Every structure is written in C-alpha cells, then in structure tokens.
UniProtKB/TrEMBL annotation:
Keywords: Membrane, Transmembrane, Transmembrane helix. Its main location: membrane. It comes from the Eukaryota. It holds the Pfam family MAPEG. It is found in: Membrane. One of its GO terms (cellular component) is membrane. PANTHER family: BLR7753 PROTEIN (PTHR35371:SF1), INNER MEMBRANE PROTEIN (PTHR35371). This is Uncharacterized protein. InterPro entries: MAPEG-like_dom_sf, Membr-assoc_MAPEG. Gene3D superfamilies: Membrane associated eicosanoid/glutathione metabolism-like domain.
Length: 230
C-alpha cells in the first residue's frame, strides 16, 4: 500500500510540475503578446545572425588572390574608370581601386536605386508621388513599387558599414588585394545580385547575396583589427 501511495504521490508531483510549467509558458506567451509578439516562433530568426559569421571563411575562400573574383573586381574597377574618364582610360592604380568601388556603390545606392524608389512611389499611388510628403505614401505600396522602395533602403542601410570598412582599409592597407577583393565582393553582391533579385522577387539569390555581402564586410573589419595603424 505504501508503495502505491508513493507512486501516486510521484504522479501527482509530476502533474503539478507539468501544470506549473504550462502556466509559466502561457504567462510568458501572454507577456510576449502584450509586447507586440504575435508569432513567437519568429523570434527564432535571431539564430540567423550566426550564419553571417559562419560565412566569413567562405568569403575568404572566394576572395583569394588571383581568383575569379579578383578578375571580376578588376573588370568592374576598370569599367568605372573608363566611364569616369569619358572613355579616355580604363587604368586604375592599385591604391585607387577602393575609391572606384565606392564610386559605383554610391551611384547605385543614392542615384539609381534612389530614382527607382521614387518611381515606385509614383507607380504605387493612384495620384502619383506627392513631392511634398513622399514618405507618407510608402504605406500604400505593395508588389514591385514596395520592392523598389525597400531595396533602396536596404542599400542605404548597408552602405555605411561598407564605407567605414573601406575607409579604414584605404588608410591602413590601401594596396592589400585581398581586402580589395572582399570589399569588391560586397559591392558586386549588392549591386549585381541583391538589387536585381529584390526587384524581380527572387528570394534565394537575394538572401545568399545579402549573407555574402555582410560576411565580407565583417571579414574586412576582422582582418584590419590585426593590422598595425600606420
């Protein structure tokens, strides 16, 4: 009889613990809901941050000297120089490559995608774009007009981090080809993959290019942290 009582007591204790845990869970979920969380599972996306760090070694492999990426970066840099000189030269000094990448990135971020964002606001509102209150109209956007707006803002959000890393690289190691390749990897990923993929609503290359672009800038910062300040 005593053994049965002990078993019953153990089951009762286990049930109480289970009920207590369930109540705690419900209380926690209610607190989250009060704080604006309607889909608690969405908070698991925090773990996605680790993917950017995991991709850093991948960007190191992609940015190896004398590889395909370096050829692509040099080709883009030469094209920028050719356009910037009105066709008189495509030659760029080693120490000028970061500036050429910056010229391309600035142009796409603020001129091209900025114009695209304005076009999206104009196309996404029946009365066209209100130049006096343009940002108030963004809440009406959806589909392509919204993607034009959102892609522009993503580039603006990403540019400062790249610009800081690029400025430090230019000051501390202006001729380091690996750093140039990594900075170029970010620019090429954002300009030629991410932005078009966003506009055409192609999810996988957009996500992958964003991860690669972010990881490449982190990689630059980590490498610079090991270099002495001249």
């Amino acid at each position: 009889m005593s053994s049965n009582n002990a078993a019953d007591k153990a089951r009762e204790t286990a049930d109480q613990a289970k009920d207590f845990a369930e109540q705690g869970k419900q209380t926690f979920l209610e607190k989250l809901k009060e704080d604006g969380v309607v889909n608690p599972q969405g908070l698991s996306k925090f773990a996605f941050g680790g993917l950017f760090l995991a991709a850093v070694p991948v960007t190191s492999w992609i940015a190896q000297p004398n590889g395909l990426l370096e050829k692509a970066v040099n080709g883009v840099v030469s094209s920028v120089a050719f356009l910037g000189s009105a066709g008189s030269t495509s030659s760029v000094a080693q120490t000028g490559k970061i500036a050429a990448l910056g010229a391309l990135y600035v142009t796409v971020t603020y001129a091209i995608s900025g114009a695209g964002s304005a076009a999206g606001a104009d196309a996404g509102n029946e009365g066209g774009r209100d130049n006096n209150h343009p940002r108030a109209q963004t809440q009406n956007l959806k589909g392509l007009p919204l993607r034009l707006h959102s892609a522009h803002y993503n580039l603006m959000e990403m540019f400062p981090g790249w610009a800081i890393s690029a400025a430090l690289a230019q000051a501390m190691a202006p001729g380091d080809q690996t750093l140039i390749n990594l900075l170029g990897l970010h620019v090429l990923s954002k300009v030629f993959v991410y932005y078009p993929s966003y506009l055409f609503n192609i999810g996988l290359p957009r996500t992958l290019s964003h991860v690669v672009a972010t990881a490449s800038v982190i990689n630059v910062a980590l490498r610079l942290s090991k270099k002495p300040i001249l």
